[in-house]
């Protein structure tokens, strides 16, 4: 009886912990390279010597970039659903699906261009000296993390990935 109770408690504990791990899933917004670069700049604001105005501009770029990426990702997902729903029928209407595919890739193209613009906007916030310091910080952190950013307590600051041991 005690063994059965122990087994039930262990199984219940494993199920609850698995749910917790699943709930802490990967945030798609963190894939945004502009957001990562902005976070690096903000974390190192003192070392870079950023003014309050520069910090505010970087935050605004970060938020705008994140919102834009979320909108575009949602539009892409909706188009995927539309494309698949049009392919479920007995006959596939290519004239209906092709424009949806074109629109999907137009949004992906716009997302890539938006990322480049975000990078440019971030760089334009910094002075020439700050750009040099930022490059040095990136190089230092890449060396500490084997080419993947700086590490603190097993987590890479630059690439926001947990580093295995």
Any overview of this molecule?
The chain is an all-alpha fold. The chain has a domain of 101 residues. Helix content is 74%, strand content 2%. It contains 6 helices and 2 strands. A two-stranded antiparallel sheet has the order 1-2. A hairpin with a 2-residue loop joins strand 1 and strand 2.
Walk me through the topology.
Layout: H1 2-23, H2 33-43, H3 45-48, H4 52-87, H5 94-125, H6 128-144, E1 151-152, E2 155-156
Antiparallel strand pairs: 1-2
Key structural traits:
165 residues; two-stranded antiparallel ribbon; 6 helices; 2% strand; disordered C terminus
What's the quick description here?
The protein has 165 residues and is an all-alpha fold. The chain has 6 helices and 2 strands; from the N terminus they run ααααααββ.
* Spans where pLDDT lies below 50 across 5 or more residues: 18-30, 149-155, 157-165
Strand segment count: 2
Lateral arrangement of strands in the main beta sheet? 1-2
Helical/strand content category: mainly alpha
Largest sheet: 2 strands, antiparallel
Task: Figure out the total of helices.
Answer: 6
Strand content bin: under 5%
The average pLDDT score comes to 79
User: Which overall shape is indicated by the principal axes computed on the Cα atoms?
Assistant: flat
- CA gyration radius, whole angstroms: 23 Å
In N-to-C order, the SSE pattern is HHHHHHEE
Distance between the termini: 40 Å
Helix content: over 70%
């Amino acid at each position: 009886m005690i063994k059965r109770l122990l087994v039930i408690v262990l199984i219940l504990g494993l199920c609850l912990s698995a749910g917790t791990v699943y709930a802490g899933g990967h945030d798609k917004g963190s894939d945004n390279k502009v957001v990562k670069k902005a976070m690096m700049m903000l974390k190192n604001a003192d070392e870079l010597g950023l003014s309050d105005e520069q910090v505010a501009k970087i935050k605004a770029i970060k938020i705008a970039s994140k919102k834009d990426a979320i909108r575009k990702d949602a539009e892409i997902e909706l188009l995927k659903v539309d494309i698949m729903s049009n392919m479920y029928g007995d006959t596939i209407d290519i004239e209906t699906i092709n424009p949806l595919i074109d629109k999907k890739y137009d949004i992906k193209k716009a997302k890539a261009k938006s990322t480049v613009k975000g990078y440019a906007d971030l760089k334009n916030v910094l002075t020439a000296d700050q750009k040099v310091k930022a490059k040095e910080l990136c190089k230092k952190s890449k060396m500490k993390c084997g080419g993947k950013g700086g590490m603190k307590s097993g987590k890479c600051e630059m690439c926001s990935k947990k580093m295995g041991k």
